[in-house]
Inverse folding.
């Protein structure tokens, strides 16, 4: 190779290397949110610095619905459960005339939208339990590969927030173990966490039911999913779930709703430098707007109250404005 | 440096390097148990080979009591709980006259040894719950640093089996994530798992109680340990706990008693090459003998029945004889 060409290539390589090293968060606009993340990572990984965190203690916890992917108008897992009802009714025809299955089978979206929490629990129990772990995983994966969101006409796993994917990768590149800590079903999220977020199943903490060990007719052991809730991983259940499943207090935590309040408090209350952040949905054009300032009709999905906003400001948590802080929201954005 | 000397040194270095690479299990005698471990690791890590296991799926599960450290004459954690009774009674003097606390306070070892399961549960609840996670961790660490086993007069954390420590390290050096899956208390084992075994707290699955999130008088959040059992990580509870906490089936599992049967079955029933092993305590001179052939007085600690031995032989599990397979048992052995 001619020396001039070699030099030019090495300059190019160096420049692109610098660009990558210099901006680990290219989908973020410059501003306090991006600055807070970069400063936190630099300080906690500077050996000998006052804020250094040993690699073994670098635990970061991420809520999923509304923090890592779209949660409106309804949680993706609830869509899964509703989509599974016909198969459940086919297997147990006696359910066809019983509520809430009757309403779901009617296809009347307005009536389905009005189902209460008790009805929803019956649907969750019927569609998420009573089968082997392997059968459940296969069904969930099949659905995720084919079902599409109504607005973007894309698989749900495409609807992850690119800026948050960058945060996950940036933290991992700096020795952090990234955990998902979700109110969603632990088994459900585990079926796609590794391919979608690079988070292995053993780093997913979620609402979890019990299983029962047994044997099939050939004597082969298997686990059956039971309708017995062991961990309701929401609100106070999030720090409780973190203790149960991880056993260490996170150094950084990311959420987007009142359900994440306790996890962010618990994270921030640890010794040394801590990072607690809240994603605020304030971009109706590119995603949805249901932040505290939006005066939206009351939503039960991802509620972010003014009280939470005030607590964040008072406690030194950083609020991320999707509208102002994120250059791109989805990887498929132009 | 003179060439001859340099050559000699490099030969020495090479030889010692070879010795290390060639024998990852120096405390094991040559034999079928050692061979099984080495063959398993080589086959599952040979890229392109028929038994290759991708790094993400390399999960190995180890029972603790009797598999990684001494469990006789009584589980170390039970000694901890008994040792904590005076402090509990001091804090709640009304317990001094109530059984089983009265018997424990009497110091009558024979009477203490006869306490039943219900009494033991009361002692466990009183000594392991009702305090913050931080207070519990501090107390357990203080005890582990000072308490000594009656036979060897050494800290309990010295009484780990050197050959099993080598297996843990050998598996980790080959990309395996090593988990402890113990009937003991998850929080208790987590206080020393990292320093004693190189297993971080998040890779300890154990019998686990619930916690409750709350705030102290200054508004600082903390978790209180509650006497509510979420996971009884023994027998069928082991595969159930593995699913809850890891979400993947192990490729290798190590146990020593009937309480590990289901974990070994579950591991072995997975696709591809699997390794299930049982440590048999048959060395009364160097440790204890309570294996199936020993015809010992019935022990409730680490029971290894003839039925389990027969199942192991029938199912292709490998039984490790402490007497014949282990050159050294403890790191402090001569």
């Amino acid at each position: 190779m001619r020396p001039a060409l070699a030099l030019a290539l090495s300059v190019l390589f160096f420049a692109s290397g610098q660009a990558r090293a210099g901006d680990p968060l290219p989908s973020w606009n410059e501003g306090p949110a991006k600055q807070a993340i970069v400063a936190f990572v630099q300080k906690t990984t500077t050996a000998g610095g006052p804020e250094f965190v040993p690699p073994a203690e670098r635990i970061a916890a991420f809520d999923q619905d509304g923090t890592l992917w779209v949660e409106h108008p309804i949680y993706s897992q609830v869509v899964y459960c509703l989509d599974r009802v016909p198969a459940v009714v086919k297997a147990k025809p006696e359910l066809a005339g019983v509520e809430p299955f009757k309403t779901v089978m009617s296809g009347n979206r307005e009536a389905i939208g009005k189902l209460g929490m008790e009805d929803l629990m019956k649907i969750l129990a019927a569609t998420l339990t009573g089968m082997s772990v392997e059968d459940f995983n296969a069904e969930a994966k099949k659905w995720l590969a084919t079902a599409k969101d109504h607005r973007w006409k894309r698989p749900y796993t495409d609807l992850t927030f690119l800026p948050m994917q960058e945060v996950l990768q940036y933290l991992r590149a700096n020795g952090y173990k990234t955990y998902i800590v979700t109110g969603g079903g632990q088994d459900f999220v585990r079926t796609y966490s590794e391919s979608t977020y690079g988070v292995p199943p053993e780093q997913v903490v979620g609402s979890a039911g019990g299983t029962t060990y047994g044997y099939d007719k050939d004597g082969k052991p298997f686990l059956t999913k039971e309708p017995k809730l062991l961990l309701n991983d929401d609100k106070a259940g999030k720090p409780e779930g973190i203790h149960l499943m991880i056993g260490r207090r996170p150094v950084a935590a990311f959420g987007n709703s009142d359900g994440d309040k306790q996890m962010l408090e618990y994270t921030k209350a640890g010794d040394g430098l801590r990072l607690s952040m809240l994603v605020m949905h304030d971009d109706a054009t590119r995603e949805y707007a249901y932040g505290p300032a939006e005066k939206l009709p009351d939503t039960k999905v991802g509620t972010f109250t003014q009280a939470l906003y005030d607590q964040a400001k008072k406690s030194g948590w950083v609020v991320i404005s999707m509208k102002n802080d994120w250059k791109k929201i989805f990887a498929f954005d132009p």
User: Anything to note?
Assistant: The interface with chain A takes residues 56, 59, 133, 177, 186-187, 190, 194, 200-202, 204, 208, 210-213, 220-223, 230-231, 236, 239-240, 243-248, 262, 265-266, 269 of chain B (CB under 8 Å).
